[in-house]
Amino acid sequence: MKILKVMSFVAMLAPIGAAANAATVDANYQGVSGEALTIYNGVKSNPGNQRVIAGEFSFSSTALGNFAAYCVDLATSLITNSTTTVNYTVKENMFSANTISNVQRLFDANYAEVDTKAERASFQLALWEMLYDTDLTDNNFAYVSGGSTGVWDRADSYLAAAGDYTGRKLWNLTFLGDADPRSQGVVTMTEVAPVPLPAAGLLLLGGLGGLGVIARRRKSAA
What range does the record give for the signal peptide (predicted)? Predict the structure, then answer.
């Protein structure tokens, strides 16, 4: 459930900060929650249709604990041997500032509601589209077939929501690349801590609560 995931991500905020300073993150693949799809991959060395599992990956790490991530690198295969430790480098400039801003909006607008395998597959499609293409039908990336009913339409709706999003930043994103041994680059996310109310706001709320108590006492007296 997303609630449990968010709680674990909040607990990981400090470790990710420490990992960013060290610039390296170790990761062992644990599994994926998603769907089997066929995509057109124009980024790999031999462009063409490719059968993939699109979804959310799970990793274990001494630096981060257990964490979830999405693929941001269609040119490279992911090492899925759980006994092989992959050492990633934190990449602050893996993509252009504009692309990173678009990815940020994609997460902020949608990720909190991404809970099922089908939704994770759609979210991965939307992320690939945002990174590698301008629509879902041509150029470097395209969805071809497979997955549950509506997987394509849902990805398109995620992109539309990202384009319309004007709210606050909800997720801290960390891009991991330059893996040793060579493995697919990924992006992981932690929930931004809620902004605490200023002291004046707390006092105001306390005052309003006090007024409620007084009103109830007056009503009782009447």
Answer: 1-22
